[in-house]
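Supplementary Note 3. Input sequence used for the single-chain structure prediction.
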Amino acid sequence: MADRQRDMPNFGRTLSGRNRGRRGPARFAPVEKPKNMKKTLSRLRTYFAAEKKTLLFVFMLIVVDTAVTLLTPYVIGLAVNQIGLHSHSVHFTLLIMFLLILGLSYFLDGLLTFFQGWIMAAAGQKIVISLRNGLFHKLQKLPIAFFDRHHHGEIMSRLTNDIENVDVTISQSTVQLMNDAISIAGSFILMIWISPILTLASMISVPLVFLLTRTIASRTSRLFVEQQKELGTLNGHIEESISGLSVVKAFSHEKKEIQKFTEINRRLTDVGTKAQVWSGFLMPMMNVINNLSFTAVASVGGFLAVKGMITVGMIASFLTYSRQFSRPLNDVASIFNTLQSAVAGAERVFDIMDEEEEKPDRKDARKVGNFKGDIVFDDVSFHYEQGHPILKHVDFHARPGETIALVGPTGAGKTTIINLLTRFYDVSEGAVRIDGVDIRDYKRSEFRRLFGIVLQDTYLFRGSILENLRYGKPGATDEEVRQAARAANADGFIMKMEEGYETLLQENGEELSEGQKQLLTVARAILTDPAILVMDEATSHVDTQTERRIQAAMSRLMQGRTSFIIAHRLSTIRSADRILVVENGQIAEQGTHRELLREKGLYYTLYMDQFPLAER
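The predicted structure, written as discrete structure tokens, is reproduced below.
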């Protein structure tokens, strides 16, 4: 893999992605299961421990609320019993008392439910904030190599979707699961207490529910998997078509793209319809089964009432308890799926937290003192994987104030040299020394402040132009910022904007041209007053006129500084003090522009390919 693609630290690059607001999986949607649920739950417990008092209080509220909920059917039965079926008389006093108790119970149930949700949402947010902060702080400590191995969208998904799944489970599903568990157990105990015979009659629905759920789940799970696959295909086609719209129009393939979209959309519609239809069978069939159970209980209860073995009021209570017993059973599978999805998300978050951090500074690490800019690569070798070297025995010496240009084929190792110089990676063998000191002996945070970096792929943050220019030197005065912008030839176009330096930029300055963005990054580098300047293809995306302006700004910036330039456009580095030609991870040639042309080696070939009519 080319070194640019593999290891170039994209300074200022941010993660990208969208929070889709997913609120948990559908009942039979495919759910990603955690690899080690017990271990992940154990780690989550440490975050819950910080809110243990709040969670204990919520649990007490749930117990009280469930007790009130379990009380109401019994009170209903007592109220019904106050209506004398044989004596044709009504005990109004007791009936009104029981009705008042019933109304108070419903009010108390609603109040407790509200407080449960409110308190649990607050506790859940604190836990999630702690989890999100921990993950973000961890990302700041990870080496560049980690971001080379992971897509930024994937990392963003862990910060948003995965943690949101945890949030949903904490604030909603956990409370519901506890409520349902206590309700099922309490209802079942009270059903047996009222009548073991009626309890046995009501159990006819349990095997039917299990059989129905298993049958429908086996079909819908497969259909939902197919639906997700087709949805992914459709999203990919849409993204591809929009990204390559100019190519589509250039070849007049609009109809072809529409036909392809229509075909994929039709397949998605077909499989989605089948999935929804089969999934939609569940609740109607569950109602049928529940009604069968209701009929069985009513029939057996009526027989027992005639025999005087149970009162009509207790039959009414039992029917309500049987509803409270069966309803949570219908939700448990969905809640468990949500729980599994959340634990799987937490597991992915913990995977990042377990990544090895950037190696800490040595205990005796020194601060950067009076810097001269004398840089030596001493027999440096580097590999990402053992046995696959990227750089092999690289030796060169950059004297203070020199401008060193790195040229060579893509993937030769130019960017890797810069990565080692800036210590985004540490050498595998040999040493990089600045002013005679191994750079691994410096404090990393102070060492990196020596560098000013202007990249091919510019990046500007959301905020004002002033804030972006001050990014490397937050304490800079307005006049210092403006002087840097003037030196970078950026002040002119900035002042033409309606808000000037206070103009707000969108993400990565999308409203600016490539040249304007590049000039701002040069100004940002000038403002930091770096000791070492690094420029990587800083003018490759701009027109000739803008290139001259950027080169003029960089020439002023390079004065008196040790500078490194990576360039494929060789016209930009002819004035360099020394040109290093990198090939296959080694320094193949080095010298001035004229010296290398006279040697007629690799540099000569590269130069003549770009300028075939150039004077030799």
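Confidence is low (pLDDT under 50) at residues 1-28. The chain is about 60% helix and 10% strand.
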